[in-house]
Amino acid sequence: MNFGRQVNVKTTEELQTMRASGRINAEILATVKNLIQPGVSTADLNAAAEEVLKKHGCYSPFKGYSKPPFPASICTSVNEEMVHGIPSKKRILREGDIVSVDSGTVFQGFVSDSAFTAGVGVISEEASRLLEITEGALYAAIDKMRVGNRTGDVSAAIQEYVESRGLHVTREYTSHGVGRQMHEAPMVPNFGTAGTGLPLRPGMTIAIEPMVLIGTHETRVLRDQWTVISADKSLTAHFEHSVAVTDGDPLILTVP
Ligand code: MG
Ligand code: MG
Fold first, then answer.
1. Do 237 and 115 contact (CB within 8 A), yes or no?
2. Which of 240, 228, 238, 119 is nearest to 169 (CA)?
3. Tens-digit pLDDT profile for residues 61-96
4. CATH fold of 12-252, please?
5. Domain ranges (residues) in the chain
6. What's the 177 CA to ligand 2 centre distance in angstroms?
7. pLDDT of res. 1
8. 74, containing H or E segment
9. Widest CA span of the chain, in angstroms?
């Protein structure tokens, strides 16, 4: 993926548009989350997301993205699938599965990008610990989105939070700047060294997305050329918010 080199600092007005975009994206994720139960297909989840997009006159930046063009409006990644899973009528959610839903919205030219992972019915203790730790890493990283810090502080927060709890962070897929493009500079890995990288400035917007694996940090891509799975097929999870740096506290754009 090409993130470019230009860091696009957003104006107050642009941040308001991104916030509106993020609010719609949050509505999509809430709608999809409500549908998650045994017997539902991942294509059903995609259809529900598309209805919300349509209602708001928006579209997903995922659909048609890259090569081969991504064929759906959300990514649905089940169990060992970490990210970029393709919704399918054949993929029926079963009791005990965990499913990551990643959604993007383009509203008035600005992208919001957010994801959660949820259990289907009752899930194992191991799976629920994975979800808690991955979401915890997201909020630890968001708390670093402050003037005075650098991108390396965000990366290090994710890595420390996850690895101190005995789990693994992905090496190949990263958090990223977001704005007029889904992927902009800066690229922010899920691992790194505090005090390094680009200084954070008000108006910088980053989609922070810890991707966490139980057994290994290694991944591979399935033959569909999209779905990323853990190399050892251990469970994986993924949480994401688009977040703006301000003069004060970090502003999470992708909440209701
Ligand atoms: Mg995403
Ligand atoms: Mg993203």
1. no
2. 238
3. 999 999 999 999 999 999 999 999 999 999 999 999
4. Creatine Amidinohydrolase (3.90.230)
5. 12-252
6. 8
7. 57
8. strand 74-78
9. 48
pLDDT grade for 19, boundaries at 50, 70 and 90: very high
> Which of these, 246, 247, 241, lies nearest to 137 by C-alpha position?
241
Q: How far is the CA of 171 from the centre of ligand 2 (A)?
A: 15
Rg (CA), the chain: 17
- Positive/negative CA dihedral, 80, 82, 87, 93: positive
Instruction: Report residue 64 as tokens.
Output: 């048609």
Supply angle C-alpha 240, 242, 60, rounded to 5.
Answer: 85
Q: Rounded to the nearest whole angstrom, what is the distance from the C-alpha of residue 67 to the centroid of ligand 1?
A: 17
Q: What are phi and psi of 132, to 5 degrees?
A: -60, -45
Is the whole model's pTM more than 0.85, yes or no? yes
- What confidence tier does 137 reach under pLDDT thresholds 50, 70, 90? very high
Give the number of other Cβ atoms within 10 Å of residue 249's Cβ. 11
Nearest Cα to 236, choosing from 213, 217, 220?
A: 213
What residues pack around ion ligand 1 (CB closer than 5 A)? 102, 113, 115, 240
pLDDT, one tens digit per residue, over 223-255 is 999 999 999 999 999 999 999 999 999 999 999
Give residue 57 CA to ligand 2 midpoint distance, Å.
Answer: 21
Asked if residue 100 lies in contact with residue 230, where contact means CB atoms within 8 angstroms, the answer is no
**End-to-end distance of the chain based on CA atoms, in angstroms?**
29
